[in-house]
Amino acid sequence: MTCLMAEKSMADQFGGQEFGIKESTIESIHDAFKERKIDCEQLIQRYLYRIKKYNFSLERGAPLNAFVALNPNAVRQAKALDRHFKQSNKLMGPLHCIPIAVKDNIDTVDTPSTSGTLALLGSQPISNAFLVNKLRAAGGIIIGKAAMDELASGGEGISGCIGRIGNADDPNQNSGGSSGGSAVAVSANFAVLGIGTDNSGSVRVPAVFNGVYAIRPSTGLISHLGILPRGNLDGVAGVMARSIPDLALAAIASTSDPDDHFTKQVPRTDSYANNLKNASLDGRRIGVIRSVAGNEVFDATDKTSMAIFNQVKARLERKGASLVEINLPVFDTNRDNNMAGEAEDIDQYLASFASTRRNLQDICLSGRTRLGEKACLGYMESIAPNQSIAIDMILR
Description:
With 396 residues, the chain is of the alpha/beta class. It has a domain of 274 residues: Amidase signature (AS) enzymes (Alpha-Beta Complex). The chain is built from 14 helices and eleven strands. The strands form three sheets. Strands 1-3-2-6-8-7 form a six-stranded mixed beta sheet, sandwiched between helices. Strands 10-9-11 form a three-stranded mixed beta sheet. Strand 9 and strand 10 form a beta hairpin. Helix 1 packs across helix 3 and helix 3 runs antiparallel to helix 4. The longest helix is centred in the C-terminal third of the chain and has 16 residues. The protein starts with a helix and ends with a helix.
């Protein structure tokens, strides 16, 4: 069955006029609601149908394996949004009925949070992560929990819980990580938006590998509350989408959280989406980092990549921007203390609900991690404590 035939059969099965979900955007979905071409329940049913049809398909080789679990309440939540729209003739918010794939280390009350490891299989949080509450308040529907590298460590797209994640373009290739499932879900049209977490490229790398846009916000713009703590000194949740306008709208979660000190001192002005409406590159200065600590960022011998970069550069300049080359010869690349306080933070997180493990040591000793007991305990012992100089300097 071709993708087009599958779309038509879905229209027959779920009712409503024909509305293709492939490459749909937030705007096109909302226009379809207003024009009564489809309702929220029908839309979510179509996304679930597509996931169930293609996520484990072996037609192109390896399966995509983008999800650890689907939200069992997604259709019920869609029906509630339909009732709201029918009664008020208004959308719940800017993300009304937009299907969102959320990384497996971000808490939702509908599905377990395993963080990609068998050691946490069955761990069910009792509350949503702060950012999930914000997404849902804006009308978004968490369609499922996306697969990830175990405990957000690695960039190969291998979950200890569900196995290997396939690239959306070629499932036999690397999906990137650690937020591989979120990127694949967006690229494969299993969701409109994907939420991941990023310390060393865990949002940006899989986005590039799967051909979608991504943003890694500045630390503190999005709350860490309800996310398995990994590198909270500079880690942050990020968004993936197939278009820049959708990416900007998804930044709805960028609000201060009274329970997360990292978010308190972050300056907040207008929203990304509002700024995008009046965006102009006239007079804008865009930095292009050429070298960091003596290491060249661009490989001049890669003719194909350099040609693409030069095309983008020329386009930006034609739009009125000036590109400024930047070299950072004394930039400190030592990230040894990036994870400072992580062991205590993970212990506190696991104690916040009836998790299947009591603390990080319990995870290491479970015999259910890909890392192995010895390596896991060695890593745990190497982490700087909360009282470290690095922590004090950042929080001061």
